[in-house]
Specification:
Order of helices and strands of chain A: EHHHHHHEEHHHHHHHHE
Shape of chain A: globular
Mean pLDDT of chain B: 94
Number of domains of chain B: 2
Bound molecules: protoporphyrin IX containing FE, copper (II) ion
Largest sheet of chain B: 6 strands, mixed
CATH architecture of the largest domain in chain A: Up-down Bundle
Low-confidence stretches of chain A: 1-6
CATH class of the largest domain in chain B: Mainly Beta
Helix content of chain B: 25-40%
Order of helices and strands of chain B: HHHEEEEEEEEEEHEH
CATH superfamily of the largest domain in chain A: Cytochrome c oxidase-like, subunit I domain
Number of helices of chain A: 14
Structural class of chain B: alpha+beta
Oligomer: heterodimer
Strand content of chain B: 15-25%
Low-confidence stretches of chain B: none
Strand content of chain A: under 5%
Distance between the termini of chain B: 86 Å
Mean pLDDT of chain A: 93
Structural class of chain A: mainly alpha
Number of strands of chain B: 11
Distance between the termini of chain A: 5 Å
Number of strands of chain A: 4
Shape of chain B: elongated
CATH topology of the largest domain in chain A: Cytochrome C Oxidase, Chain A
Chain lengths: ~600, ~270
C-alpha cells in the first residue's frame, strides 16, 4: 500500500505473456459441444455436476426413508441401502461438489476475474470436461452391471470393498475404481490449467495481492487437488490390482466365511492412509473455493471491502498447507500406532486458528457495512451459520480423545454434512444467484430465491443439528437399521422421523430453484452488465454475457484491488478494478 | 430485519435444543469418565464461541442493514484487532487440546496389571479368548484357522492349550479390574464399541490392535461394531456382562479351554465322516 500521485498506466507492469491467438470455432459443434471456450466448458461441467447431484439427492431420500421407516419400502434392503449411501456420498463429494466448484466456477470465473481471454490450454480444458463426463457415465453405468454399484461406503475400505459380504463386490467396485481413475485424469488436466492460468495469464496490474478471494480459493484448491488426488489415484490402481490381478497391497491373510483366501501380507491401513491423504485435503478442495466465493458475495452485497484481505489470503494458504498434514484425524481409532494421535490432534487443532480467523473476518466485514439482503447475501449468511456450527464440531472430532466416543457415530455424519455438505452447497446456490446475470444477462427471481433460501437453510439445519445428538447418544453411522438396542430410547426414533420429513421437504424445495433457473433464462428481468454494482473484473466485460475472448479488442488494465467499495472521497460507491485511479486515491 | 430475527432464532434455538435434548450420552460405566469431562469442557468453550460469533453476526445484520442513504465504512484491515483475535483463538485451542492430550496419553498406555484378553471379529459376530491358568494367551494366526480352530489359535504354542474360548458372543468381565483387550479380525475391518465404556478401536486383519478400560458398574452392555463391515454390519452384536468377582469366577469355570473345544469338534467331525 502506498500513497501516490497517479498517472494512469505508469505503475502498471507489462503483461507477462503476450496476447495469443484464440481458437475460433467455425461450427455449431465446436461452439456449443466440443467447445474450447472456458465459459462453455464451465456450463457443461456445472450442468453435469448438478444432474448427477440430483441423483445423489434422491439417494439421500432412500437412505432417510429406510432410517425413519425401516422395512416400509420393500425394495430397500441392506444391499440397496449400502449402495445408496456409497453412491450418495461419493457423488456428492467428488462428482458434484469438486466438479462444480473447480470445473464449473473455476472455468467460468478464473479467466474473467484475472482478466484473461481464456484458460491457457483450451484444448486440454475441453478434454478435461469430456473425461469427467465419461467418468460420471461409468459411475452411473454401475447401476446396470450384475450385482449393481458398490456398497462399500464412499471410503471404499478394503478388505471389505472387494470381498463377498459387500454389495457390488464383483463388478460395482471395478466400475467405481475405473470411474475415479478417469475423474482424476480429467481433473488433473483442468487443475493444471487453473493453476497456470492464474500464474501466467493475469491482466496487467492484476498482482497476486489484487486477485479476488474467489480466485485465491480456487487457485489454492487446485494446487491442493494436484497434490492430493495422486494419493487416491494410486490407491485405486492398487485396489483394482488386488481385486483383478490377485496382488496383496491391501490384503493380509484372510479367512472369509470359513474359506482361506489367496491373499497375504498386505496392509488395510495403508489404503486408509492413501485415501485420507486425498480425503482430508478434499474437504478443503471443496471448502476453499467456497470461502473465496463467500468473501466476494459478502463484500459486494454489504457494499464494504472484505475485512483483512491479506490475512484472508494468508489464511487460505496456511489452511491449504496444513490440510496436507492432518489426514490422520480420520484414523484415530483405525488401529494405527496410537502415538500418531498426538501429532494429528495438534496439527488438526492448529488448522482451527486460520479457519476461525476467516470466520471472524467475514463477520467483521458486516460491521459498519451497508447490508443488502439479496438472495446471494442470504445464502452467504446461511453459509456463515452452518460453517460456524460445523467448524466448531470439528474441534470435538479433531481433539483425539473426544473423537474416541464420537467417531463412526451420527455425530460425524452431522458434522461433515454441516461443514462440507450444507455449507458449500449454500455457497454454490449463492454463487449461482450472484453470477447468473453475468452468465445469462438476466436476473433470477428474488422472491423465489428467498423462499428457496429460507426453507433450504432452516430445513437443512433442522436435519443435521439434531443429528449430532443421536451420535452423542451413541448411534453408529452406516447402520441400515438400529434393531433392538437397550440404550436407544424410543424418542430417538421420533427424531429420526422428523429428520426424514425435513430431508424430503428440503429435497423438494430444490425444484423451486430449478424452476427459477430455467424460467429466468427467458423471463428474467434483463440485468445489464453489472446489476450488483460490483468492482471485480468479471463485471466489467464489454458484453454480457461475455463474448468469445471475454474482453473485446483490448485486455483490461487493473489499477486497484477488487474491494474498493464505499471508498471515502470517491463519487461513486464502488470503483471497478479497471477504472483509472481517481485523484488522491489511496491505492491498494 | 427478518434475516436478523431468523438467524437469532437459529442460534438461540440451538442452545435451547442443547439444554432440552433428551438425547445425550449414556451414563458412563468405565474409568473413561475423563473423556466425558474433556467433552464437557469442549461444550463450554465452543458453546461460548458459537454464541459470541452468532450474536455478533445477528447484531451486525440488524444494526447495519441497508437504509436509504446509509453508507458503509472503509476499513481494509486492523492489525491490532486481528492479532488479539488470533491470540484468543490460539488460547482457546490450547485449553481444549492440553487436557485432551493428557487423557489420550492415559488411553494409549494400559496399566501394567491389566488382564489381557482377546476379542475376535468375524463377519458378523464376536468371539473372545481369555487366558487360562497360566495367565497368558498363546499366539495366533488366521492361517491356522480350520474347522476345529475357528480363531486361529496356535496349537503348538504351549500357552494355548488352556486358553478359554468363548464363541457365543457373550463376554464376562470382573468389575473394577483393568482389562486390555487385544483386537483381531479374521476377515475385514470391524470396531469394538461399547457406548457406555466410551472406548472404541478398529479390528484390522493382519495386525493386533488394542484398547483398555476398567469396567466400573455391574450390568449388561451391548457390544456393537462401529466399522462398516458389509451387509450384516448392524447385526454384529455381542454382550458385555460386568460381574461381581464371585459371579465372574462361576462363569469362568464354565468355559471351555482351547484343547477341550478342539477335541469336541474333532469328534463331531469324525462322527460326521462316519
Ligand atoms: C439434504 C441433503 C442431504 C441429506 C438429507 C443427506 C443425508 C445423508 C445420510 C442420511 C447419510 C447416511 C448416514 C449414515 O451413514 O447413517 C449420508 C451420508 C453421506 N453424505 Fe449426505 N445428505 C445430504 C447431502 C449431502 C451433501 C451435500 C454431501 C456432500 C459433501 C453429502 C455427503 C455425504 C457423505 C460423504 C456420506 C457418507 C457416505 C458413507 O458413509 O459412505 N451429503 N447423507
Ligand atoms: Cu478431515
Ligand atoms: Cu461392522
Amino acid at each position: 500500500m502506498s500513497d501516490i500521485t497517479i498517472k494512469p498506466d505508469e505503475q502498471v507492469p507489462p503483461a507477462e505473456v503476450p496476447e495469443m491467438e484464440l481458437f475460433h470455432s467455425h461450427s455449431w459443434w465446436t461452439t456449443y459441444v466440443f467447445s474450447q471456450d472456458a465459459k462453455v466448458i464451465a456450463i457443461q461441467y456445472a450442468a453435469t455436476a448438478i444432474s448427477i447431484g440430483v441423483l445423489a439427492l434422491i439417494l439421500s431420500w432412500i437412505i432417510r426413508i429406510q432410517l425413519a421407516f425401516p422395512g416400509a419400502v420393500s425394495f430397500i434392503d441392506s444391499q440397496v441401502y449400502y449402495q445408496s449411501v456409497t453412491m450418495h456420498g461419493m457423488i456428492m463429494v467428488v462428482y458434484m461438489l469438486t466438479a462444480i466448484l473447480l470445473g464449473g466456477f473455476g472455468n467460468y470465473l478464473i479467466p474473467l476475474m484475472v482478466g484473461a481471454r481464456d484458460m491457457v490450454f483450451p484444448f486440454v480444458n475441453m478434454l478435461s470436461y469430456w473425461i469427467y463426463l465419461l467418468a460420471t457415465l461409468v459411475l452411473a453405468t454401475s447401476y446396470l452391471v450384475p450385482g449393481g454399484p458398490t456398497g462399500a461406503g464412499w471410503t471404499l475400505y478394503p478388505p471389505q470393498s472387494i470381498l463377498t459380504g459387500t454389495p457390488g463386490y464383483d463388478y460395482g467396485i471395478i466400475m467405481m475404481l475405473v470411474s475415479l481413475i478417469l475423474f482424476i485424469v480429467g481433473f488433473t488436466m483442468g487443475g493444471l490449467n487453473y493453476v497456470v492460468t492464474v500464474l501466467q495469464a493475469r491482466a496487467r496490474g492484476m498482482t497476486l495481492m489484487r486477485m479476488p478471494l474467489t480466485v485465491w480459493g480456487i487457485f489454492t484448491a487446485a494446487v491442493l487437488a494436484l497434490l492430493a488426488f495422486p494419493g487416491l489415484f494410486v490407491a485405486c490402481v492398487m485396489l483394482l490390482l488386488d481385486r483383478l490381478a490377485g496382488t496383496s497391497f491391501f490384503m493380509p491373510a484372510i479367512v472369509e466365511f470359513g474359506e482361506h483366501k489367496n491373499y497375504n501380507g498386505g496392509s488395510p491401513i495403508l489404503f486408509q492412509h492413501l485415501f485420507w491423504f486425498f480425503g482430508h485435503p478434499e474437504v478443503y478442495i471443496v471448502a476453499l473455493p467456497a470461502f473465496g466465493v463467500v468473501s466476494d458475495i459478502i463484500s459486494v452485497h454489504a457494499r464494504k471491502n472484505i475485512f483483512g484481505y491479506r490475512m484472508m489470503v494468508w489464511a487460505i494458504v496456511a489452511i491449504g498447507v496444513l490440510s496436507l498434514v492432518v489426514w490422520g484425524h480420520h484414523m484415530y481409532v483405525s488401529g494405527m500406532d496410537p502415538t500418531f494421535g498426538f501429532f494429528f490432534a495438534i496439527t488438526t487443532l492448529a488448522i482451527a486458528v486460520p479457519t476461525a480467523l476467516k470466520v471472524y473476518n467475514w463477520v467483521l466485514t458486516l460491521w459498519r457495512a451497508d447490508i443488502h439482503f439479496t438472495t446471494p447475501m442470504l445464502f452467504a449468511l446461511g453459509f456463515l451459520v452452518t460453517f460456524l456450527n460445523g467448524g466448531i464440531t470439528g474441534l470435538y472430532l479433531g481433539n483425539v480423545i473426544v473423537d474416541v466416543p464420537l467417531s463412526a457415530t451420527l455425530f460425524v455424519v452431522a458434522h461433515f454434512h454441516m461443514v462440507m455438505g450444507i455449507a458449500p452447497v449454500l455457497v454454490i446456490f449463492g454463487a449461482i444467484y450472484h453470477w447468473y446475470p453475468k452468465i445469462t444477462g438476466r436476473m433470477m427471481n428474488e422472491t423465489l430465491g428467498k423462499i428457496h433460501f429460507w426453507i433450504t437453510f432452516v430445513g437443512a439445519y433442522a436435519i443435521f443439528f439434531p443429528m449430532h445428538y443421536l451420535g452423542l447418544l451413541g448411534i453408529p453411522r452406516r447402520f441400515y437399521e438400529m434393531g433392538q438396542t437397550a440404550f436407544v430410547p424410543d424418542s430417538a426414533h421420533t427424531l429420526n422421523i422428523f429428520i426424514t420429513v425435513m430431508a424430503l421437504v428440503v429435497g423438494f424445495v430444490q425444484f423451486i430453484f430449478f424452476y427459477n433457473l430455467f424460467h429466468s433464462l427467458k423471463n428474467g428481468k434483463p440485468s445489464g452488465g453489472n446489476p450488483w454494482r460490483a468492482a471485480s473484473l468479471e463485471w466489467q466485460t464489454p458484453e454480457t454475457p461475455p463474448g468469445h475472448g471475454n474482453w473485446g479488442e483490448t485486455l483490461p488494465v487493473v489499477y486497484r484491488w477488487p474491494y474498493a467499495y464505499s471508498v471515502p472521497g470517491a463519487n461513486q460507491d464502488y470503483l471497478p478494478q479497471n477504472m483509472p485511479p481517481i485523484k488522491g486515491e489511496h491505492i491498494i | 430485519m427478518f434475516a436478523a430475527v431468523m438467524i437469532l432464532l437459529v442460534v438461540s434455538g440451538s442452545f435451547v435444543f442443547h439444554f432440552m435434548s433428551p438425547w445425550r450420552a449414556t451414563p458412563v460405566a468405565s474409568n473413561w469418565g475423563s473423556i466425558d469431562e474433556t467433552m464437557a469442557l469442549t461444550f463450554i468453550i465452543t458453546g461460548a464461541g458459537f454464541l459470541a460469533v452468532g450474536l455478533f453476526l445477528v447484531y451486525c445484520l440488524w444494526r447495519f442493514r441497508h437504509k436509504p442513504g446509509s453508507k458503509a465504512d472503509y476499513e481494509p484491515e486492523n492489525a491490532r484487532l486481528e492479532l488479539i483475535l488470533t491470540f484468543i483463538t490460539t488460547l482457546a485451542v490450547v485449553i481444549l487440546l492440553a487436557p485432551g492430550l493428557l487423557v489420550w496419553g492415559q488411553f494409549v498406555t494400559p496399566p501394567e496389571n491389566a488382564t489381557q484378553i482377546e476379542a475376535v471379529g468375524v463377519q458378523w459376530s464376536w468371539s473372545f479368548r481369555l487366558p487360562g491358568a497360566d495367565y497368558q494367551l498363546g499366539t495366533s494366526d488366521v492361517r491356522m484357522i480350520d474347522a476345529t480352530n475357528s480363531l486361529g489359535v496356535n496349537p503348538s504354542d504351549p500357552r494355548s492349550a488352556d486358553d478359554l474360548i468363548v464363541t457365543d458372543g457373550e463376554l464376562h468381565l470382573p468389575v473394577n479390574k483393568a482389562v486390555k483387550v487385544l483386537l483381531r479380525s479374521v476377515d475385514v475391518l470391524h470396531d469394538f464399541y461399547i457406548p457406555q465404556v466410551r472406548a472404541k478401536m478398529d479390528l484390522v486383519p493382519g495386525i493386533v490392535s488394542y484398547l483398555w478400560f476398567t469396567p466400573t458398574n455391574i450390568g449388561e452392555y451391548e457390544i456393537l461394531c462401529a466399522a462398516y463391515c458389509g451387509n450384516g454390519h448392524p447385526q454384529m452384536r455381542g454382550k458385555l456382562i460386568v460381574d461381581s468377582d464371585e459371579d465372574y469366577e462361576k462363569w469362568l469355570h464354565a468355559q471351555q479351554t482351547f484343547e477341550q473345544t478342539r477335541k469336541a469338534q474333532q469328534k463331531t467331525i469324525k462322527v460326521g465322516v462316519n
